[in-house]
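Limitations

Structures in this collection are predictions, not experimental determinations, and the ligand pose is part of the prediction. Treat each record accordingly. The example that follows, with NAI as the small molecule, is included so readers can see exactly what is and is not provided: the inputs are given verbatim, and the output is the predicted complex.
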Amino acid sequence: MKKTYRIAVIPGDGIGPEVIAEGVKVLNKAAELDGSFQFDFTYFPWGCEYYLGHGKMMDDDGLEQLKDFDAIYLGAVGYPGVPDHISLWGLLLKIRKGFDQYVNLRPIKLLDGVRCPLNNVQSEQVDMLVIRENSEGEYAGAGEWLMKDSPQEVVLQTGVFSRKGTERIIRYAYELARKHGKTLTSISKGNALNYSMVFWDQVFDEVGKEYPDVKTSSYLVDAASMYFIKDPKRFEVVVASNLFGDILTDLGAAIAGGLGLAAGANINPERKYPSMFEPIHGSAPRHAGKQTANPLASVWSASQMLDFLGHSDWGNKLIKTMEELIVRGEVLTQDMGGTATTTEVGDEIVSLLDHSFAIK
Ligand code: NAI
Ligand code: MG
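Predicted complex:
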């Protein structure tokens, strides 16, 4: 009997629905070609439009509705007309935090055929996996707004680094580096952030004692930003706090082909709750409804979902197929120098998959 994966789909705002539609097509094709599994997709209308109609980004019992799915597939959240902190906290962060998706996995890999904006950099020199802490740190939402709107106004935004939270993300990174035989780089700022990042460095060293086989480095975040550009091959597995990981992965996306290609998985490693897969870009209002958005970031996150569900053979096949599409260069969206529509790119991936992997 076929295994059925129940996937909650939240297309969200702007280009979200357009790019997710292509990812869904590709996932269905992978399942069809494999034959041993299938997908059952359930759609949720949550996002900014929902907010304008209902005064909230998702249903009050939204997490309850999502909790029994095998995974969540999300497009993008946020649109002009709803303040970004409302849309972000009302949906995306609610899910990430509520489901303890404390690992954010962001591959930064220059695929064959993708033009790198850096001079003389070959594709094998940009191949890293950034592990971003996803549950606390600088995005814990802790702080105070004192004497609001008065001349004495004071705002405090507090970073929260618990021992549990810091240890588990660093341990996850060591495990992954060990498993893949890669080096591990910690991103810090212990010179200026004299509590949080001194603690982070200490935990990185402590946990490292259990992994003497893993070769490590530690960089200050400013120096790391420079080396991402000047010498990206230094980085293999990278572990960073929520804020540093957020910023560095947009930089990473820029050197690996742009936001139209970058994917991220929000993982609850214990599998107590569903994990969530999404392109890292936003709703790109400029492209919304025009069929000009690049769906490849969504396809890449679909590949991460397949990895997570235990089908990394198909995860790899999707990446290979994206490379084939890009090397051919005939069916690409504008951001990659082409003229194809979002749907045409998705259809082409499906047809390349058919061509390469159908049992003949
Ligand atoms: P954005 O990622 O939507 O766009 C940044 C730039 O990249 C724009 O020039 C956009 O046109 C381009 N771009 C992004 N994705 C693309 C794609 N697939 N194909 C072609 N071009 C693409 O970020 P921006 O403009 O800062 O934010 C727009 C809205 O999205 C805001 O409301 C923001 O809060 C939200 N947002 C949501 C995220 C999420 O849901 N995970 C992440 C980032 C932003
Ligand atoms: Mg970001």
